[in-house]
Model the fold of this input.
Amino acid sequence: MAGKQGVPLIAVTSGEPAGIGPELCLALAAKRFPVRLVILGDRNLLAERARLLELDIASLNILHIPMRTSCTPGHLDAANAGYVLDMLDRAIAGCQSGEFAAMVTAPVHKGVINDAGIHFSGHTEYLAEKTGTARVVMMLAGAGLRVALATTHLPLRDVPAAITRDDLETTLRILHRDLVSRFGIEAPRILVAGLNPHAGEGGHMGREEIEVITPVLEKLRAEGMQLIGPLPADTLFTHHILAGSHAQLAMYHDQGLAVLKYAAFADGINVTLGLPIVRTSVDHGTALDLAGSGRADPRSLFAAIEAATAMIGKGHDLAKPQKIGQSQAINGPRQQ
Done:
């Protein structure tokens, strides 16, 4: 939706109240974007954190969502799990109604939400359920990479069975479609990893490449998609193979995200593809040990907002290119 003078309005959820999410949002007061922002969260919590950190947040636009109970930085309380979901629900509803052009999410703590008796496996799955989307694709970006996942939060032993021809085809169609429609890439070139070491080595190290992955790639290539693979994952992310590609598809979580995390932890972002709304996120966790310290790094949140802005306008560059290894891990483990 266009805000004042036709400027889009993006909702930013402030995440787990005991974590660094609220102060990351406070850092937006010192940053300017070509969109309008509204922070979803408890205004009293945000004011208290601002006083603690001696920040001037008079310029921030806050949509008040009340906490269920008081909060101390660094100390989780399951009583506030409902508050965290209230923010997400309000942002989703606003995107669906056209009130917001996109939503950007600060980190949540999956464990404490489950401790409250609410099944929650992550933002990605929650957004899919709430928007009635049968299939979404998780993609993380940074350092010039766009790494999508064929499977997400599964034990490693369950991954091979989860990679079926139908599911892989659906994933690739969503990835290709959103690269075109969300990012304005007319003819995406996608690198596809194999599942097994050496991409199965001709069937000697597994047959998933022969029986599942290759037939899907051949089918979609016949439709005009530029799909390269299946490639050995240990060489797919080398510079000469990456050159000229627009995205990379990993078969499981750590196969692709270990590289992304190393390359762009501080300013990497998470994008949910396949949704009827635009959603981006930081690529780190709640960092409870940093909450209230003033040392949390807001670059990932800034990058997520910039990416959402680009997606709204079909921008061509999701992640600012940089040398692999330039960024450092600052805000704790990733969250999805």
About this structure: DSSP finds twelve helices and eleven strands in the chain.
